[in-house]
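Design request, tokens follow.
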């Protein structure tokens, strides 16, 4: 697996990142351990987690695997802060909330630092300066080697990056063939500040695998009452047409749809890594088999055209 620097920073990450959102909820410990093993053996380094994943179980699992399944030095830990494990309020970007969540994450992960600490979506109840103060404390103390943001719009990222007395190296946003909204303002903003993008849901919340064509498998996320609203926006209309075009192109290239979708994404400007998640080790193996070769120009042009943002 290839590696690339995050923007203009010295932080190097694998072009695919392992997301742990399903750990502790849909993915049991043994399967999570196997996922981590497969990922690192394939050359993957970037592992993304958060306190809210599995109500804290994802961090606890990952912490148990480090030093056993994989050495701490072999992984780049990207951790989202400022989110609570339980209760109605999931977001807390206050100084107390952020630093408390970081200390808790470090304890569960069994490490004295995270490689990339991500502030969550802007908290309307907390001034930006307070959020940046907490991020600066983590950065200056060495508990966070690099600082990033998560789900900030372009102007929000620019405001934070222009205000912070430390570098903000990344914005963690949704980006795929069926959701290219980051190109409107996030991409220009991160480029202006020498930063990069971590792309979550790079397979369009699962639809770019082609498994939802014509039906919704009962065992899929779309077939779950909990996850159906998450997947549903991409099952019809324009996203459906994009998926059909992708599957047609992939078939002509003798590729699986997810391979072509990831190849397209990983050669977009400013994308440092695509965060992929899986419910089973077998699913992850299929994703990791994706080659890093670029998409041929004629195919890229067709995919660009069919998925282009509407004015």
């Amino acid at each position: 697996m290839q590696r690339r620097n995050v923007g203009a920073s010295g932080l190097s990450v694998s072009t695919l990142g392992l997301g742990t959102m399903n750990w502790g909820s849909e993915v049991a410990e043994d399967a999570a351990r196997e996922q981590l093993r497969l990922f690192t053996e394939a050359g993957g380094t970037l592992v993304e987690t958060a306190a809210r994943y599995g109500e804290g179980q994802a961090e606890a699992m990952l912490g148990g695997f480090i030093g056993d399944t994989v050495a701490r030095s072999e992984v780049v830990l990207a951790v989202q802060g400022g989110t609570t494990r339980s209760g109605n309020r999931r977001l807390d970007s206050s100084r107390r909330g952020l630093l408390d969540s970081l200390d808790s994450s470090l304890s569960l992960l069994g490490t004295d630092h995270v490689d990339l600490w991500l502030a969550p979506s802007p908290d309307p109840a907390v001034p930006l300066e307070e959020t940046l103060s907490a991020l600066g404390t983590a950065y200056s103390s060495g508990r966070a080697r690099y600082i990033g943001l998560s789900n900030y719009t372009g102007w929000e990222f620019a405001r934070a990056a222009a205000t912070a007395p430390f570098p903000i190296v990344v914005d963690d946003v949704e980006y795929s063939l069926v959701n290219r909204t980051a190109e409107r303002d996030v991409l220009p903003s991160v480029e202006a500040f020498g930063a990069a993008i971590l792309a979550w849901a790079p397979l369009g919340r699962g639809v770019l695998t082609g498994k939802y064509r014509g039906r919704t498998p009962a065992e899929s996320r779309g077939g779950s009452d909990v996850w159906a609203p998450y997947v549903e926006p991409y099952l019809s209309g324009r996203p459906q047409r994009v998926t059909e075009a992708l599957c047609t192109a992939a078939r002509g290239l003798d590729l699986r749809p997810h391979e072509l979708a990831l190849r397209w994404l990983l050669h977009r400007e400013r994308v440092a890594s695509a965060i992929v998640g899986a419910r089973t080790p077998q699913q992850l193996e299929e994703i990791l088999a994706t080659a890093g070769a670029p998409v041929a120009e004629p195919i890229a042009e067709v995919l660009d055209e069919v998925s282009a943002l509407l004015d």
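Comment from the thread starter after seeing the answer: thanks! The first helix runs from residue 29 to 41.
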